[in-house]
Amino acid sequence: MHTNLLSASEVQDLLDVDRSTVYRMAGDGRLPAVKVGRQWRFPADEIENLFDAVVPRNSRIDPVLAFSIIDVMARALGVQMLVTDVSGLPLTEVANPCDWFSERADEPEILTACVDEWRVLADDLDFAPKFRPGSLGFECARSFVRSGSELVGMVLAGGVAPEGSPSNGFHALESQQRHHVLELLPSVGALVSRCAVSQRSNNR
């Protein structure tokens, strides 16, 4: 049976990553791929399934618009940020990653550990943002994203060294800066809420 194959360029556009990342993920097995001559080709159905797992079809948040917001806010606040769906699955790339995360971002076990912690945060319905320690050594805070009265996602601010500890490649925040992040995080969630689009699942 003939399998529809995608080019690297098509996968790049679909997953919204750069071309070198597509090649690297094909080479280390994180993306299903075959070599056709000297070019990588990608089975369309398997890539589609992967895309659904990473960016759920019923997502109510536009990841491109959401990232444009958190990219500015993460740099201004001195933290790393990302947006997830309401179950904790990432919808955007990490904005303003700390050095520790940047050095390990391609390690599958790091992403797995992060997603596990984001899912725990998703299950905790304490609405007041606060920094919480994680298994990877840095702290993270979160605010929910709403569409009307419905919770549709989270904004996570993390990569922060525990207060009073050496930075170890994490973002180092003084007490006043930490308070400022927690104070503004609900406002960032409110801004991302404006990117919530109920018609997203009908547009694909």
Description of the molecule:
With 204 residues, this protein is α+β, with helices and mostly antiparallel strands. Helices cover 41% and strands 19% of the residues. It has helices at residues 8-15, 19-27, 44-54, 63-77, 99-104, 108-123, 175-193, and strands at residues 5-6, 34-36, 39-43, 80-85, 132-133, 139-147, 150-160. A 4-stranded antiparallel beta sheet has the order 4-7-6-5, sandwiched between helices. A 3-stranded antiparallel beta sheet has the order 1-3-2. Strand 6 (139-147) and strand 7 form a beta hairpin.
Short description:
The protein has 7 helices and 7 strands, in the order βααββααβααβββα. It is of the alpha+beta class and 204 residues long. The protein folds into 2 domains: 50 residues; 131 residues, Beta-Lactamase.
Blueprint of the fold:
Layout: E1 5-6, H1 8-15, H2 19-27, E2 34-36, E3 39-43, H3 44-54, H4 63-77, E4 80-85, H5 99-104, H6 108-123, E5 132-133, E6 139-147, E7 150-160, H7 175-193
Antiparallel strand pairs: 1-3, 2-3, 4-7, 5-6, 6-7
